[in-house]
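Query form — protein GNAT family N-acetyltransferase

QUESTION: What is the three-dimensional structure of this chain?
INPUT:
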Amino acid sequence: MSDPILVTQRLRLTPFLETDYKLLRDLHSDPEVNRYHSPGLAPMAEAEVQRRLTSYVEDHRRTGISKWKLETIDDDFIGRAGFSWQNEPDGYELGYSLKQAYWRQGYASEIAIALVDWFFSHRAEDQMFAYAASEHRKSFAVMEKAGLRPWMEMTKHGVSCRFYRITRQEHERARGVVIPTSGSN
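ANSWER: The structure tokens for GNAT family N-acetyltransferase are given below.
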């Protein structure tokens, strides 16, 4: 097993390995898991699963940031979570996808909160964002629990989406960190 990227009370994130194809395929073979992701309410094509896995492995190797394998601390694979670089808008996007058996147990919120903290502790960027299809209200609640706030709406991959964002300053303020302004003592 790879060294963990992040560990919470119940969850662990580790880098995906090329040998994790079956885990990712099983996750995205459930049409309900894909409802608000490409390809929509259908199983993801095997070639797309392989493309994503390769991208996750390469992104982590090259930059140290990626979508990672999400497991319980008891070693049960429950999904994926982490970051990917997006264009339009430019920046790192927080994303997560969990197996249906692990929905409604607080796992998405737990890992989203921890990932926001991880991002601002390990990265120099001044902001990060997340987005979901405009009708995916449960994902909005997860983003809000993680400290992100509504930012804008736009079409992404042909789907109307609501974007949420958090800046470094907002994150630090929420955590009680005082940031001196220039010229203050």
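ADDITIONAL NOTE: The helical segments are 21-28, 31-34, 46-63, 107-122, 137-145, 168-174.
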